Amino acid sequence: MEAKKVAEIATSAGEILLSNGAEAYRVEETIKKICSSYGFNGECISTSTGIFISISDQEGEFVTSVKRINLRRVDLYRVELINSFSRGLAENPLPYEEAKNKLREIYNAPNFSLGIRLLAAGLTAFSYAIFFNGGILDALVSLLISFGIYLLLEYISKIGSFQFLEYYLSGFIIGAVSLAIGSFFPQINKDNVITGAIIVLLPGVALTNGIKDLLYGDYVSGFAKLGEAILIIVAMSVGIVTALSIFMKWF
């Protein structure tokens, strides 16, 4: 197979990995493994927003590929599919068209339905509200708020906006609604409600991957992911503090 086609396969696989929450070292190792499966020596540098690939062919010529990643989310199912794909290539290198079709199937793999994701978000908020000494009523309110916040983020992400604004508004709504409900229903503790509701927003995967990248020596990608996680936490915290500062005198 031509080096250009191998670079295209490797770039597509790396794009799926990076856009779905994989660590930088995983992207680089997978791309090198794919190149090696076809008998080429490939080098890769992965950052949080892009992939740079260079492959040398038998004549010593180099093929370079660059791919910028604009949209990023967390979908470990697709990450696992690409891992299986790269391991399969090591044992049985697929023809170009077959490999591209396989990658297209992985890219278009169905997501969990909105109802399942809402249920997961709600149960997560409910569980953490209980875990941090909240009562059943606190947990139920956290569950309902997390439903609304998840739907809000789904809507805002589709129309496009600054990430800081998304999480600022989410934090503001959590703080305002928790304070209002806690004032009308004294048996509900607003602090426990806020604790449960914000769990859905916390960037746990980004924090973990950032630390793992740093431990593997990928400092650019590691600090970028940690910076993104800190930005989310700050935006959410500022939103909650703003809501509490504004509405505390009213309720």
UniProtKB/TrEMBL annotation:
Membrane topology type: Multi-pass membrane protein
Major site of localization recorded for this protein: membrane
Keywords: Cell membrane, Membrane, Transmembrane, Transmembrane helix
Gene Ontology molecular function: any one: transmembrane transporter activity
Top-level division of the source organism's lineage: Bacteria
Single biological process term from Gene Ontology: succinate transport
TM ranges: 136-153, 165-186, 192-211, 223-248
Localization (cell): Cell membrane
InterPro entries, alphabetized: ThrE-like_N, ThrE_Dicarb/AminoAcid_Exp
Residues of the Threonine/serine exporter-like N-terminal domain: 9-246
Cellular component annotations (GO), alphabetically ordered: plasma membrane
Pfam families assigned to the protein according to its UniProt record, in alphabetical order: ThrE
Family membership noted in the UniProt record: Belongs to the ThrE exporter (TC 2.A.79) family.
Name listed for the protein in its UniProt record: Threonine/serine exporter-like N-terminal domain-containing protein
Organism of provenance: Ruminiclostridium cellobioparum subsp. termitidis CT1112
